[in-house]
């Protein structure tokens, strides 16, 4: 029978790094696929008001955003310092809201069109007159699901 050595000092083998590049590329690919880029570049400063009772929207792909706020510095010379409406990536007037809502509906599948929610992201210092005008246009466009974006109050 063979003789077994006991208590021999064995050295631990080095860890193989051959699979390390595969793991790195797999992680890189995962983050590239799962990350979404911002679809709209904001041209207005929007600091949404705070609230205590907040409910998060479940399906964000069924939300159309309307931004209202003071134009950023680079647009202040052309647009002024009064609050402006931004639809997608460009400034708009109140009259263009109905067309915006209809194009947003057309971009969705037919069975999802009645579930479309309009989210108002309005600067906290914006006067209520422009909000009332926007709401009137949304009523004319039959967009009755409305959401006001807020941030949670820090306690």
Automatic annotation (TrEMBL):
<dbReference type="Pfam" id="PF02472">
    <property type="entry name" value="ExbD"/>
</dbReference>
<keyword id="KW-1003">Cell membrane</keyword>
<keyword id="KW-0653">Protein transport</keyword>
<feature type="transmembrane region" description="Helical">
    <location>
        <begin position="12"/>
        <end position="33"/>
    </location>
</feature>
<keyword id="KW-0472">Membrane</keyword>
<comment type="similarity">
    <text>Belongs to the ExbD/TolR family.</text>
</comment>
<keyword id="KW-1133">Transmembrane helix</keyword>
<dbReference type="GO" id="GO:0005886">
    <property type="term" value="C:plasma membrane"/>
</dbReference>
<protein>
    <submittedName>
        <fullName>Biopolymer transporter ExbD</fullName>
    </submittedName>
</protein>
<dbReference type="GO" id="GO:0022857">
    <property type="term" value="F:transmembrane transporter activity"/>
</dbReference>
<dbReference type="GO" id="GO:0015031">
    <property type="term" value="P:protein transport"/>
</dbReference>
<keyword id="KW-0813">Transport</keyword>
<dbReference type="InterPro" id="IPR003400">
    <property type="entry name" value="ExbD"/>
</dbReference>
<keyword id="KW-0812">Transmembrane</keyword>
């Amino acid at each position: 029978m063979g003789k077994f050595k006991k208590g021999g000092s064995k050295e631990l083998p080095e860890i193989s790094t051959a699979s390390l590049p595969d793991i790195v590329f797999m992680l890189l690919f995962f983050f590239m696929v799962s990350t979404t880029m911002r679809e709209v570049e904001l041209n207005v400063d929007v600091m949404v008001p705070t609230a205590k009772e907040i409910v998060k929207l479940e399906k964000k792909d069924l939300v159309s955003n309307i931004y209202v706020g003071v134009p950023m510095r680079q647009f202040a010379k052309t647009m002024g310092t009064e609050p402006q409406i931004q639809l997608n990536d460009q400034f708009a007037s109140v009259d263009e809201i109905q067309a915006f809502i209809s194009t947003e509906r057309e971009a969705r599948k037919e069975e999802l069109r009645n579930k479309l929610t309009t989210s108002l992201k309005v600067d906290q210092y914006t006067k209520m007159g422009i909000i009332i005008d926007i709401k009137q246009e949304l009523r004319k466009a039959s967009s009755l699901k409305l959401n006001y974006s807020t941030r949670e109050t820090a306690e």
